């Protein structure tokens, strides 16, 4: 890790302070002449004798008269002058007079008081280091996104301002949402050549709301606008407006629109606007909480007392049901563009876009992939090709083949592939369960076709039966729902017929949940029961409560009893018909189970080919 001098100073500051005080307390230097004295010593009595004999030439007194360094000469000292240390007693008043009497050179050295100097330096140096450290930390926090330094500028907008779009994405890179592209191509033309519209009295729309499920390309479409329109582009997330302090979000909205007015015409893109634009009056804080104040300021800026000519606000959300009604009215968001899950043509276009930088085998048809992936969003398709590329690279292949595509689809839908089961009673039971699903779905006219049956575990499932979903799932008939119920009950019915009631397993738990849910919707939402064409349960719940908390019954207890009876009747009737299908085709089921245990996976075409040898498969259109 590379450390700058500022970071080095920050980490070394505590060490410097601690070292300073240790050095001050333990290693205060003492510099005087005593450091140069030899180790020779003399008693005080012998010192007086030397004075009387005239052998002492000079005396230096230290430590307030407690220590003397003498220069003496004598036989004991080799008849040469040497320095000797003498410890003086407390009461040596006769010493001075004796030294003067014998004409001895006398000098006194007072104590050098360095403690006051070091104390003064310590009192000044520590506050100075502390102040410098605080200034450095304050400046450092100003350069980051958070910290105390941000307190002076937390009301400023965090919009990503681009005078020229540099996203590198244009409309040709966005596929599968042609209707939405047409809307935005018109807006881009309005920004580039407004005279085409103003000549006939048309006004530029103030706001466009993109509504659709996650992964359908709402943010990608906004980036494409930045690549097409030669105007300034502001991008911000709705969550960046909301802070803990009331008024901060409103200040950021004002700052954002102030910058936009200075650079009009321009585009403002607000991603996930439901974070700030949800219905007012639903918060605990009433009308004074931060989110509502921010929304009020946003409403005022979009269509308030001052016009915002040339500013187009584009917002994206997947929860349009919780947005405030004042935000959705004309004059604020004039247009609401639905960005739905792509159809076959849209999926094919999306695959062509994401396949540009992938090495796909020439035998792989993108049309086949598009037909096998109904319900996939643009993000799902991009992830599909990426997963297939990873699998191909893992196997050291030079291109992506259909096998990697199939494995990627299975992995996205059901999870990672597990270890195949060993040949045992459990494996045979699972095989009968999956074949039960597949044969019931194949022999019912209104059920979807079988795509694949496998015993290879994926995720939590020990075996799987794949059906090819129909393209149009928006309208489903009563016969189709009942066929789905019977197909889901096929696994449990096969266990009952082959192994008996005592050997049925918990493998049908998820199937039974789906069966109960579909039967309840037939009775309470779709009016497909003997109760009549009544909608007894509303799909839309209160978005500000937990799911299911606001689902209060809007019918009497008598109707509730009838609902339970009808649900039971529908499931019982479907279960009875499913058991009949399993009994009448027991020979085919045994044959299919043997093939499945041997191969572990049966393709849909092979599955139907085996069944056609024993019975007639209904024509499904």
Automatic annotation (TrEMBL):
InterPro entries: AAA+_ATPase, AAA_lid_3, ATPase_AAA_core, ATPase_AAA_CS, FtsH, P-loop_NTPase, Pept_M41_FtsH_extracell, Peptidase_M41. The chain crosses the membrane at residues 7-26, 115-138. It is a multi-pass membrane protein. Zn(2+) binds at residues 433, 437, 511. ATP binds at residues 212-219. Residues 204-343 form the AAA+ ATPase domain. Its EC number is 3.4.24.-. Its cofactor is Zn(2+). One of its GO terms (cellular component) is chloroplast thylakoid membrane. The active site is at 434. It is an enzyme of class 3 (hydrolase). The keyword RNA-binding does not apply. It is found in: Membrane; Plastid, Chloroplast thylakoid membrane. Keywords: ATP-binding, Cell cycle, Cell division, Chloroplast, Hydrolase, Membrane, Metal-binding, Metalloprotease, Nucleotide-binding, Plastid, Protease, Thylakoid, Transmembrane, Transmembrane helix, Zinc. GO terms for molecular function: ATP binding; ATP hydrolysis activity; ATP-dependent peptidase activity; metalloendopeptidase activity; zinc ion binding. GO terms for biological process: cell division; proteolysis; PSII associated light-harvesting complex II catabolic process. Binds 1 zinc ion per subunit. SMART domains: AAA. Its main location: membrane. Homohexamer. NCBIfam families: FtsH_fam (TIGR01241). Belongs to the AAA ATPase family. In the N-terminal section; belongs to the AAA ATPase family. Acts as a processive, ATP-dependent zinc metallopeptidase. This is ATP-dependent zinc metalloprotease FtsH.
């Amino acid at each position: 890790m590379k450390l700058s001098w500022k970071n080095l100073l920050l980490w070394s500051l505590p060490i410097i302070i601690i070292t300073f005080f240790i050095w001050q307390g333990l290693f205060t230097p003492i510099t005087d002449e005593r450091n140069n004295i030899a180790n020779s010593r003399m008693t005080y009595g012998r010192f007086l004798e030397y004075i009387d004999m005239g052998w002492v030439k000079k005396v230096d007194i230290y430590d307030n008269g407690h220590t003397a360094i003498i220069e003496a000469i004598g036989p004991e000292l080799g008849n040469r002058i040497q320095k000797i240390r003498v410890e003086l007693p407390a009461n040596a008043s006769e010493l001075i007079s004796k030294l003067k009497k014998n004409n001895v050179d006398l000098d006194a050295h007072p104590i050098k008081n360095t403690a006051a100097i070091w104390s003064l330096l310590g009192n000044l140096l520590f506050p100075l280091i502390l102040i410098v450290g605080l200034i450095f930390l304050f400046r450092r926090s100003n350069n980051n996104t958070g910290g105390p330094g941000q307190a002076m500028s937390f009301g400023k907008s965090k919009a990503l301002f681009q005078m020229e779009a540099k996203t590198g994405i244009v409309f040709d890179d966005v596929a599968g949402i042609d209707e939405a592209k047409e809307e935005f191509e018109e807006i881009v033309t309005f920004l580039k050549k407004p005279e085409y519209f103003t000549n006939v009295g048309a006004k530029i729309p103030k706001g466009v709301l993109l509504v659709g499920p996650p992964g359908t390309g709402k943010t990608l479409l906004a980036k494409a606008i930045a690549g097409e329109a030669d105007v300034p582009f502001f991008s911000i997330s709705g969550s960046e407006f909301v802070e803990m302090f009331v008024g901060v979000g409103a200040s950021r909205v004002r700052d954002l629109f102030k910058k936009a007015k200075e650079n009009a015409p321009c585009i403002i893109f607000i991603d996930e606007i439901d974070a700030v634009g949800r219905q007012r009056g639903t918060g605990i804080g009433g009308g004074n909480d931060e989110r509502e104040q921010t929304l009020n300021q946003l409403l005022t800026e979009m269509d308030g007392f001052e016009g915002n000519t040339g500013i187009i606000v584009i917002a994206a959300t997947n929860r349009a049901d919780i947005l405030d009604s004042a935000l959705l009215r004309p004059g604020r968001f004039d247009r609401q563009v639905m960005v739905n899950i792509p159809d076959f043509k849209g999926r094919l276009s999306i695959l062509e876009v994401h396949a540009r930088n992938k090495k796909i085998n020439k035998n792989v048809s993108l049309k086949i992939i598009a037909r096998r992936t109904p319900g996939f969003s643009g993000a799902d398709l991009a992830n599909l090709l990426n997963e297939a590329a990873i699998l191909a690279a893992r196997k050291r292949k030079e291109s992506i083949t259909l096998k990697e595509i199939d494995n990627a689809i299975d992995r996205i839908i059901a999870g990672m592939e597990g270890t195949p089961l060993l040949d045992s009673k459990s494996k045979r039971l699972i095989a009968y369960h999956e074949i039960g699903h597949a044969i019931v779905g194949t022999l019912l006219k209104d059920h979807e076709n079988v795509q694949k049956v496998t015993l290879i575990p994926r995720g939590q499932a020990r075996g799987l039966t794949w059906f090819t979903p129909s393209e149009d799932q928006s309208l489903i008939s009563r016969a189709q729902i009942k066929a789905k119920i019977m197909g889901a009950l096929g696994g449990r019915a096969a266990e009952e017929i082959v192994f008996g009631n005592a050997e049925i397993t918990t493998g049908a738990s998820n199937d039974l949940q789906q069966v109960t849910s579909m039967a309840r919707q037939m009775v309470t939402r779709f009016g497909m029961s003997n109760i009549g064409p009544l909608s007894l349960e509303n799909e839309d719940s209160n978005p500000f409560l937990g799911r299911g908390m606001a689902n209060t019954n809007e019918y009497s207890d008598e109707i509730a009893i009838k609902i339970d009876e009808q649900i039971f009747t529908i499931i019982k009737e479907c279960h009875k018909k499913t058991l009949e299908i399993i009994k009448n085709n027991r020979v085919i089921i045994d044959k299919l189970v043997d093939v499945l245990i041997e191969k572990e996976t049966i393709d849909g075409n092979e599955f139907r080919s085996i069944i056609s040898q024993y019975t007639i498969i209904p024509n499904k259109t």
